Amino acid sequence: MSATVNLGMPAVRPQxxxxxxxxxxxxxxxxxxxxxxxxEVLRGNLRHATTxxxxxxxxxxxxVRDWQKLxxxxxxxxxxxxxxxxxxxxxxxxxxTAAGGTxxxxxxxxxxxxxxxxxxxxxxxxxxxxxxSMATQEIALNETLxxxxxxxxxxxxxxxxxxxxxxxxxxxxxxxxxxxxxQIREIFLExxxxxxxxxxxxxxxxxGAARRYLxxxxxxxxxxxxxxxxxxxxxxxxxxxxxxxxxxGRMCLTLPRTLISVVGIEKVVPSFQDLExxxxxxxxxxxxxxxxxxxxxxxxxxxxxxxxxxxxxxLDNGRSAVLEDPxxxxxxxxxxxxxxxxxxxxxxxxxxxxxGSTYPGPIGAILSPQxxxxxxxxxxxxxxxxxxxLCGACYDVCPVKIDIPAxxxxxxxxxxxxxxxxRGEFHGAWDVSMKGASRxxxxxxxxxxxxRSAGTLAKVMPGKNIGTLPHALPIVPGWTxxxxxxxxxxxxxxxxxxxxxxRAAGSTSGAGDAPATGGDEQQEDQA
Amino acid sequence: xxxxxxxxxxxxxxxxxxxxxxxxxxxRLGHEVVFDRRQTCCGQMHTNTGYYTEAAPVVxxxxxxxxxxxDEVDAxxxxxxxxAGCVRDxxxxxxxxxxxxxxxxxAGRVAAKTYELSELLVDVLKVTDVGAxxxxxxxxxxTCHSMRVxxxxxxxxxxxxxxxxxxxxxxxxxxTCCGFGGTFSVKNDATSDAxxxxxxxxxxxxxxxxxxxxxxxxxxxxxxxxHRTGAAPRPVHLAQxxxxxxxxxxxPSETILGRAS
Lengths: 527, 261
Description:
The structure holds two protein chains of two kinds.
Chain A: H1 29-36, H2 40-62, H3 67-83, H4 85-98, E1 102-106, H5 109-122, E2 127-130, H6 134-138, H7 141-147, E3 151-154, H8 157-164, H9 181-191, H10 203-219, E4 225-228, E5 232-234, E6 239-244, H11 248-254, E7 258-264, E8 268-269, H12 275-286, E9 294-299, E10 309-315, H13 319-323, H14 339-343, H15 345-350, H16 361-372, H17 393-397, H18 404-420, H19 429-441, H20 444-458, E11 465-466, H21 477-480, E12 485-486, H22 492-509
Parallel strand pairs in A: 1-10, 2-3, 2-4, 4-7, 5-8, 7-10
Antiparallel strand pairs in A: 5-6, 6-9, 11-12
Chain B: E1 2-5, H1 9-14, H2 16-28, E2 32-34, H3 44-48, H4 52-66, E3 75-78, H5 81-89, H6 91-97, H7 101-112, E4 114-116, H8 117-124, E5 137-140, H9 144-149, H10 155-161, E6 167-169, H11 184-187, H12 189-206, E7 210-213, H13 216-228, E8 234-237, H14 238-243
Parallel strand pairs in B: 1-2, 1-3, 3-4, 5-6, 5-7, 7-8
């Protein structure tokens, strides 16, 4: 034993996201998806929207000749960020402070909510304006503010639709992707009292109605407070970047007196120059545009120009726990473009709500369970890594090359290992089957006998294929409820036995084309 | 060449004609095929479901079967994109999880000689026209792991297009997953069903007689859905088409992926 005892510095252990976050569903993915799948309108809306965005993205990505190099650069920068996160965050804090901003550190949803709420209360705000932000969705900031008597007004068109409908977003970029025009018209008519009932479901008319509704909010709130997120936070200059399409963000970031930005700690990038990579990758991957209409960059405060007070709330809420896992941490590289959602065949059918988290789709399936942690076998978060056929389409489109399929499999292994190590949890139908199959498949002699007898056993069943089977059976009805199964006949290895005999007979007689002499009845027949 | 056949567990039991067709094809091209009866499974099912500890003995069995004979064969062939992908990408992963560096090293040697069927034909045996005859309309489904893990690209289509009598028609949304995904098809059966329903509808839309792919597992899913709904197109594996000749043409049996003659 070493004689030196180094007690070190007292450290705060990384912790998972707080339970009040909107990251954990109320039930597992398979059950939620089963219900969502019955909604034909939803399926139609999703299919239309995801196919359209996907095609747009593919078109604008194809025209960038060095796209793969850009992806490599984006990925390398993000690895640099996760490798040096503590230093970069301290540098960011120093830069923002030097530019006249105030930096707050929030360990979880509660701390972030308290910081924003007290800042708003101190400034006497009854209403705050909001720029679309995933981080504030994740910490349920609107609900926290509401408890304090403050009304948050979403200014992004789709977020507004979701808010007015009392709904939750189902897509990272297009929160109301599950709604069609007719549904949006209904929502507006119900919640905008001054709206002319003759309004049609023409997108331009609907956008006009939203614009009139919001413009009053922007102009009527002098001395007001706005809350935003950020796409990037530049460590060396203290600059924050918000990328958007509608211009509402630009108004929120410039008109109010006080601006509060709630930003996940993984959003930091080392230097201003790094933006050249991300500002090319993000719009093309996200909306399928070469360049998004509005990119707002703001650095601290400047007298007489824009908000006179700037607060940056740096949010952990489980991110440091994700960082702890070397095989899973690249989930933090996500720039929230949502290309993986649009290309995912699971997302396109089940929809975003089935994931039960602010972050749906393939990226959500690896990010949410790592942020919440998995408590026990019943935890809905535990089902998310299995909500994928591992087709790999997400990895192909990811602008920062997050190997989502590999992380999904890694998280499945973590889940299985956790159950294996927990008393009384490793006895499910899957666990028993997998253990049994493993034993059989690692004993060649037993396996050979089992394979050869499969055909014989199947003989007792009628027909050439297997149809629907009783639900009393474990596992198999999941297959046979939806599709037929070929009935096992004689295995390949029994065919091979005959084939070898025939081949031996052929070579001893010296004639390759001689018929078999072994008296075999079936020879090359399988059926 | 001397080629060792790894049938995959699913083919051995559920689609034996796919392996038999691989043998017929390679022997017709003048190669010697060997089959080691100690082979079981590549361990993909366990690995992709997260059972690394249970996958490890299966991977070890795989390596124990094929590694000692590596010097005696020119290549190992698997009639499956996803199983070949597992051998190439995941055996090392499982070995590392078990902290078994010797297994990792041996598995790497086996993987370096392991090919999916279209890779073996085009890259190793340098052949695209295998002298096959298949007078039917087919549509090709590029399975996800062939396409995205192995990146076989146009190889299967190159092989198919020169088959005598064949007509290859495009499959709409061909690069979308069929919904198989191994245990996903059962664990998330409702979502998987929605996916295979769309895939089967696209196959029907082409008017093809057959849907062809390089993975018997995906074909069992698509074929199982087509059969359940009474749709006409039949599933057929790439090996079955390439093994089919004028003298011994492929005739499907009533059993999904089976052969009648």
